[in-house]
Amino acid sequence: MAVANNDDDVERQQLHPEPQAAEAEKPRPSVVQRGGLHPIFYILAWIFFSNLTILFNKWMIDGRGFKYPVILTCWHLIFATIATQVLARTTHLLDGRKKVKMTGRVYLRAIVPIGLLYSASLVCSNMVYLYLSVAFIQMLKAAAPVAVLLTAWAWGVEEPSLKRFLNILFIVAGVGLASLGEINFSMAGFLFQVGGIVFEAMRLIMIQVLLSGEDMKMDPLVSLYYYAPVCAVMNVIVAIGSEANKFNIADLGKAGLGLLMLNAMVAFMLNVSSVFLIGKTSGLVMTLTGILKNILLVIISVMIWKTNITPIQFVGYAIATAGLAYYSLGWEQTVAISVGIWVYAKSLWERVAGNYSPLSQGEGQEAGRLPAAVKRALIMGLVVVSVVILVAGFLYGSGGPSTGPISKEVAEIGQGA
Predict the structure, then answer these.
(1) Distances in whole angstroms, Cα of residue 25 to Cα of each of 9, 22, 285, 287, 379
(2) Which of 27-31, 60-64, 291-295 has the lowest mean pLDDT?
(3) Where residue 302 falls among pLDDT bands split at 50, 70, 90?
(4) What pLDDT is stored for residue 30 in this prediction?
(5) Positive or negative CA dihedral for 157, 153, 208, 31?
(6) What is its main location (predicted)?
(7) Taking the model in full, what pTM does it have?
(8) Closest C-alpha to 149, from 127, 172, 174
């Protein structure tokens, strides 16, 4: 999505993967050519822009006082429309659109309804920043696979399965615990987030139903090329009816034209990084990266905004994350990765302790080995987490930003909604 969850086209491959996605370590085909920068660069770029987009949007709406989420979403989509048109004419990033057999009939029957759902999910995802903290929003997003799976069952795309049903109940239980433990709970914010998840689930299933042909597959940037104009028009209509009458031009100057431009550029760069991530990594690495990204975002928001996380919330989010990992990877893959991590950590400890031997190495190879790409991703992920925690800890210790997780004015809005 072009605003708060642009990475949904990437995460779609985690929440609703193709049969071979979880086990294949082969790179996915893409418009992106092989060679060049190391895949770790694309992983870190996607994590960076994904989390930065969410934190930036929260700060613009809450910290800078630009409390017009629909107008902000509309601006992002107008920027995305212009940017994709320019890129299509000046670069090869959108060459994938030439493989899509787009006709007026397909556009009206598929792109327009999917674009409307896309627009609704964007608006809901930005509206929620008025009411809830970033950490709690990410906890609620762990329920996204539940909505996707239930929608798939309702549309007849997948056959109901007791095993999967129990798995999603596990995730729901974790999200429920996290919600019960939320101190600044807002029903309006909760409903907006649930609405965003449901609209996005419907969009993903409609893509699978209406655009499932080999000649209709689109990467995130090509999708944005077709959806952004529809979403922009839809959001202009919504903005006129909901926020235009209360819009104060002084708030535009207060937010800063330069920051609004930068905000739209960051949101758009998330789509660009998504294209390269899909082209340079496997389904397994993308799944692990997505889970790491969500956990990292919770940590960052807690440190920067000093969000209070209760023990019951921590337990609930841990349960939901474990359920999400199992849902995305499956039992065999989860066990294989766990064993690989243990063996790799053990070999590292033996090297540090000075008692590493070929025998222990041989035992490690027999026990299982973590794929090289996953190994590098985990190492770089740990480095990023460490750096972010140190920086956030410095901000936390020096007083942090002037606004809390929910400013006084926003809190009053949430209580009155």
Answers:
(1) 19, 8, 8, 12, 18
(2) 27-31
(3) confident
(4) 43
(5) negative
(6) endoplasmic reticulum
(7) 0.70
(8) 172
